[in-house]
Amino acid sequence: MDGLAHQIVAGIATGGIYASVALAIVMIYQATHHVNFAQGEMATLSTFIAWSMIQAGMPYWVAFFGTIVVSFAIGVVVERILIRPVANAPVLTMVGVFIGLLLIIGNATGWIFGYTTKVFPSPFASDKPLFGGLVSAHELGSTLVTLTVLVLVWAFFRFTRLGLAMRAAAYNPRSARLVGIRVGWMLALGWGLAAAIGAVAGMMVAPVVFLDPTMMLGILLYAFAGALMGGIDNPAGAVLGGFSVGVLENLAGAYVVGTELKLTVALAIIIGVLVVRPSGLFGRVVLSRV
Q1: pLDDT of residue 134
Q2: Phi, psi of 37 (to 5 degrees)
Q3: What residue ranges do the domains of the chain occupy?
């Protein structure tokens, strides 16, 4: 039973990372109705920026918040320069842009920082077992950081005028323009916020998987599975889906398929959701007459 409890708690910790990336994916999807395949590479680049700040002598939390600011700016710049000119392009064009962005950022990260695996420090390092050894200090700390970010994002969209304007621009751009909302800038801010959330996820996962340019590839797949499970158009559902995928992945890896085949769990979830309920567990089913 202790082993089962540890797998569930560890799954919740890793699921929090997946939930963060899933939320970033959903935020961009709501605004553009496209999936940002480069979300993982953007998070990896942000984590390397944090690593560089720490190596330069900055305290961890100064580098942490500094990276969030830089990542937000990178997200805004990407939307303004690369995404905005093709905003009304066909779907295949957008897919090509996102794949190109994935390759460009991934290769640029490796070219700038190198392809050798690096150790990323954890601010929660502790040799003492917590809760009877069920969870490590980093797992508990990263879960609390992730939950704090998710609560702050929810409060931002629920209680601030800017958050409400961004939601309006995402749901109905035409009506939002009629009431004076600058939809273009709301989209850019959404990209910046998604990049910042991805940066937090990258910095929380890097101490576990170590830092290299391909660090987020598998995590992006798990996050995408969580977003589909919860509903690609439902931020809260995507968060719940991310936590669920984390628990399912850990349990399946420990008791069903083994650690070598854990990635197949995410693929099975993606296929199962697309076949049984394409809108996800909490997504909206949209019907249109023709």
Answers
A1: 65
A2: -70, -15
A3: 2-216
